[in-house]
Amino acid sequence: MGSLAVATTKDDIRAGAVIIHGAEECYNHSMELLKALGFPEGVMPLKNLDEAGLVRETGFVWMKQKAPYEHFFKGTNTKVRYDTEVTAYVEDGKMKKMTGVKSKQMLLWVPIVEMEQLALAVHSRLRLLQTR
To answer: Could you tell me which InterPro entries the record lists for this protein (predicted)?
Structure first.
């Protein structure tokens, strides 16, 4: 038997979203959301945001910025790249199915797919690609 796949579009995923526009409004909305989820300030240092959205029913969020941005976290000695659009599904203390965020590990840029707030530290899960 074959399987039936249902394609979802960007509009389907974002249906019913609260959408914010404008740099200052998007920044404030994003900071409030991160704080409500239990993440420390500065964990997602996005610059020049154009749009931010939240679908409360599913926890889907997105943030759009004018250009990709790289940030160096001194505390972890890690360089992180944020694409022009960052997406995730959020719940209390977690961000899952993240897109648009990569961490430089050794010489490779590795996608960060999940972040979790544990006690006083933020832990990231990286997606490592296997080659055969």
So the answer is: At5g01610-like, DUF538
